[in-house]
Each structure stands twice: as structure tokens, then as C-alpha cells.
Design a protein that fits this description.
With about 240 residues, the protein is α+β, with helices and mostly antiparallel strands. It is about 40% helix and about 15% strand. Its EC number is 2.3.2.27.
Length: about 240
Amino acid sequence: MAAQMTDAHRRFLQVLMSHGIMEGSEARKLHRRCCEVHKVYYAHDKLDDFISTINSHLQPLFMQIRKGMSEGDGRAHYALVNLAETEITKMASDYTENELELFRKTMDLIILSENGFASSTDILNLADQLKTKKMKKKEAEQVLKAFVEDKWLSERNGEYTLHTRCIIEMEQYILSNYQDVARKCNICHSLAIQSQVCESCGIGIHLPCVRKYFKAQTEPRCPQCNDFWMCDIPGTKQ
């Protein structure tokens, strides 16, 4: 039988719903605050159990709080995911058909790229090639801005990649729709968009996982085939 939901669980869920996604340290602070305010048992290492209780009550609603990792810095994040809807229909209530088409095409560029990024120039060049309804570049710039604000995309120096929220929500969609190129990280086993790939056997590893895994190794070798790891290890002096 599922553990009982308390007001502490409800408050946690409400705050997470309003944010959509929350960094691990913020989620831990929120967990503590909710327990203290509602005077329920708190243990600093029981956040995942606390979330598990919420998830058991969300199950009939086809929703779930999922844990994922930021590909930029490796930090844990928690996001509320709608399991009832698949593919990009999750976004349909917020965006028009041609905006969704632009997102799909942007996703294609990012996932099919070598480094998990797409330039704003390449994305904006797609705006007047949309089948649903062509978009002016100025309009496309506003739509990209909305994708970033809503945490579907992340932008850095004119380069776009999938936001952690998008990866957590759309992992299954991406793995099924990009079977030839989408891969899971060999270390943490979650979807890897920004990754390094072994030149010998083709496995991929997230950049934060690469940093952690090869940290203590003087001669980095692939965890799968044991061949020398040819890529530069991020965060180390060459």
C-alpha cells in the first residue's frame, strides 16, 4: 500500500509544478522546508523516498517526478513529467502547429549534430522552409526565445541545445524516433545528447560522466572495449 501523502508532499508538488524543473540542491532545500512547515518527519538523505511517495499518488494521473542530469555540469534535476502524452504533443497546448514544426526541425539539427548543438543561423534558416506555415526570421527569433524561457531549449553564445527538462520529458520519444543516432550514456545509462564517442566501439559518454570516469586514470581507456580514449578529457590540461 502506498505511503500516505501529507501536506508537506502536496506543497513540494505544487512548487515543483510551478517551476516545471528544479535543480537537485533546490529540491533538497524545498524538501526540508516543506517538512519543517508541516511538522512531518525529515531526513536529509530521504528526498528520493519522499518523491517516491508523491509518485505513487501521481501514477493514476499518468504523471511522475523524474530525476535527470544536466549535460552541462552533471548536476541532478527533478522534473514533473506527463506520461499520458507522448512525442511533442506535450507542447501542443502552448505552441502553434508551425512553432512545433520549428521545434521538431531544431531537435533534428541538435540530435544529428556531432556536438549536440545547433547554431541560431542554421535554425533561423529553417523558418521559411516550414510546411505548415512559413515564419519570418524575426518571428522565429521570438519563438526560440519562448522555447528557452519555457525550458525546452538552452542557449549559449548563439548555440542551442536541448534543456535538461526536455531531455527528461522526451527521452523515450528521442530514443524511439532517432534510433540510428540517439544513444544512452555508457556510464549513467540516461540519454546523451552532448557526449564523447569511442572511436573504436562507438559507445557514448556524457561530458560530466567523462570527467568523473577518467579523473583518476593516467591512460584513459574505453569502459566497453578497453581501447585508448582518443577524445580530450574535459577539465584536464592537455
